[in-house]
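Researcher: I'm preparing a figure for a lab meeting and need a structural model of a single chain. I don't have an experimental structure, so a prediction will have to do for now. The sequence is pasted below. Please return the structure as tokens so I can convert it later.
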Amino acid sequence: MRHLIQPVYYKFVCLLLLVTSFCLPAWADTINISNNYPIQLAEYGQLEFLLDAPGTMDFKEILHNGKFAKLQKQIPNFGLTKDAIWLRFTVQNNTNDGELMFNVTYPILDIIDLYYPDKNGHFQMIPGGELRPYKKRPVNHQNFVYTIQIPSGTAQTFYVRIQSREAILVPIYIGTSREIYNKLYNDDLLLSIYIGIILVMIFYNTFIFFSVRDWSYFYYIIYIFSVGLAQVCLQGFGYRFFWNENIFITEQSVLWAGALSGISVLVFVQNFLHVKEKAPWAYRIFTLFIVVYSSTLVMSLLGYFSIAYAVIDFLAITGVSFILLFAVSQAFRHSKPARIFVLAWTIFILSVIVFVLKDIGIIPYNIFTSHILVIGSGMEVVLLSFALADKINTFKAEKEASQALALQISKENEQLVREQNIILEAKVQERTEELQNSNKDLNVALTNLKDTQTRLVEKEKMASLGQLTAGIAHEINNPINFVTSNIKPLKMDIADLRSLLNRYDALRDSPDIQQELNGIEKFKREIDIDYIHEEISSLIKGIEDGAARTAEIVKGLRTFSRLDESDVKSIDIHEGLDSTLVLLRNGIPSNVNIIKHYSELPKIECYAGKVNQVFMNILSNSLNAIRTKKEQTDHESITISTKQEGEFVVISIKDTGIGMSQAVKEKIFDPFFTTKDVGEGTGLGLSIVFSIIEKHRGRIIVNSAPGEGAEFIIYLPLDLSNHL
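Model: Understood. Here is the structure written out token by token.
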């Protein structure tokens, strides 16, 4: 086996080095499309990006935003994020054609809008994305393909806005229409060949399954179908040809396919390597993986896409590693099927590694690395088919050898019976019975190897942590609901008043006015006119209160939204503190009191948004410190005090949280230092606070002890220009 694997690894590494040597990074700022280079991949410094964390910035803000940063990777790769991503790039058309095309070869982006300048220099937008109507695409293809007019010899700048629940990867090819269509054809051809291989393997193994009735083939057929379906979803073929009109399937397909492929490979490996019989402890781990994979389907249906994607990514890494380690351990125990499985699985893992290294920019992005998963998956499917065929041949050979051995021993026993005496004959008979029992055990073992058991358990329901934006939406929803609930009774009261007025209008035509007036008085008593007057006043007062509450929240949002302002401005510190508390209100526990001791302060010169960010980070840490206390009281508090000391404004934020030791105090401003559990914090919050205050030529002091809460004292200069 060693002689078989080493040449394969050697050839694979040589091929990998050969392919990656064809693509070296380019650092030109402008993408030049010429007759000699009619198609290019936008990469490295040719692209600039901007992260729009709230996802609310409009194009006018982006157009004049100076915070774009050059891309330091070969292609944009932002992983799983809820931010809106803005890309900016400039294209120089040095061809003879005044028309170029863009091709974004990652078809599972939810929203991707292209902004381009028209003949008058005004920017127009072409909407795109999986969640946009497929029929409105300029080009009928699963990729996002745009045709743009760029006069020959000129250059134009373009903007792209992307949002997606899946990992955001944006490989952009720019070139002439001929080259772009040629690339689309080649990509579709490669994927079609892969789908053809998958279909051939499904039909081939289905035929064998009905011939030999080995359930390993049945589970392998399910595995091939699931892996093929995952690639069809990831490459956009399913969306293009089958369900582009169904938003629900479009949203769920990639995650479903990933979860089903993970479940199917676990079930197949359990059966193929006889995990339950050979290693019950490993069988329990396999079952646990299947249960967690199944829970991601529930999370997807409930709308927790980010958590489901993160869980599937974690399961893919740990599951693949565990399967490989288990298969290697079985291979060292002289299991031939396990050796072939290790070879197939190793090729697939290497393809995954190349795919990941391509995404993070270590290996160049090209036609080989972009389709490496399809290639590796196809090779794995073929090799595993060989392994299954070899498994059947192995069992046949073992059974025939066992039967031949039993026959030979039986003949020897007969010879011994004829040559030996009665005592020897008894011993030979005993030996013959043992051999027959052994043969029966082998037949039972062979039958057990063809059986399989699998079961699914109830899926565990998970909840997601609320985020700041959800809190704001909740805050605004309360007063809006209050206003909405008052509208219906107000309409009914107005309808009663309208009916009363109509009766008065009818008096002019009535022959008996007194009788009509008596009827009107009776109607007024029926509708209780005095109560209606009081109720209308009360309802209008409620609507006014709801509107005022909404205005307060919107004002807080507007005040806090100055995060992206880069100019020094004169602001009221108290407004910044209050707007931050408005945004955090939904996350403040009911037992926490916010105590304010504001002094009369002049306005100060500062970067308004940055200072608001300082307040947000410190207040969030204070709330977290209070939440983590083991013993909560009804008198937990955060006290905010302000005062002026000479040329500085002093802001104190003191909480009744768990406090911190001297060792922690010395490290809290270090980047990536955190006392939270793994995965709950980045350790950058207070580091950012320190850098912002340092930028303002101020200082920050921390007073704290374990169990006594913490106090952050911030000194900011009144006039920043005097301290620069």
